[in-house]
Amino acid sequence: ESRGVAFSRKTFEHVRARYRIDCRWKWEAFAQHEFDKFRRLSVRAVAGTGPALQIVNEKTFAMLAGAAYLFEIEQLDERPMTIDAGDRTFAHRASLYLTGVEKIGEHVAIVQTLYAQPRLGDPGDLRMLAEVSVTTKLSKHVALTDSFTVAYDRTPPDGIRRFDTQLTFGLLVSF
Questions:
Q1: Over 80: is that where the pLDDT of 5 sits?
Q2: Which of 59, 129, 133, 163 has a C-alpha 20 to 30 A away from that of 115?
Q3: Residue 10: is its pLDDT beyond 90?
């Protein structure tokens, strides 16, 4: 907040585990929690699992595609004058993604990811997200990241635009 103007009121946590089946196939499980006042999310919680295929795995470039089942719970805020104030929804979605990593030197990587998450049974309820980030390793387990994200929600909450963008700076910890 600066001079009484809020720039961000959100939290985002994501955890993902990958189990290597063979040199190309992996199995993933993930969970995520979000709060975002500007998008009217009091809570969004997801959990999912599915396979991922290593398409390319070279020293300086890698590409991975995944397809997962995702269960989603959303609780909207109680904003006055909105037709969906306080709504809680449960949804089953597919989570499809393609991610590419290009290493620039030993410590810097450019990562680009595209997600599509259609609602199962209602594919018109679609969410998409594209993110490009630059990650700089500080150590084996710690890195800094600078990301630009464009998100699209075909059926957003009342009063929220379909498109959203954000620029973030973060700290990554990996095990």
A1: no
A2: 59
A3: no
3-state helix, strand, coil in the chain (%, to 5): 0, 70, 25
Which token pair is 52?
A: 């991922």
User: Is 79 part of a structural domain of the chain?
Assistant: yes
List 53's β-bridge partners, or say none: 25, 65
Q: Could you give the CA distance from residue 49 to residue 68 in angstroms, rounded to a whole number?
A: 5
Instruction: Retrieve residue 6's tokens.
Output: 């809020």
> Can you tell me the distance from the alpha carbon of 156 to that of 163, in angstroms, rounded to the nearest whole number?
9
Classify 46 as helix, strand or coil: strand
Domain count, the chain: 1
pTM: 0.85
Instruction: Specify which residues 144 forms β-bridges with.
Output: 136, 171
CATH code (residue 106): 2.40.128.100
Residue 1 counted as domain residue = no
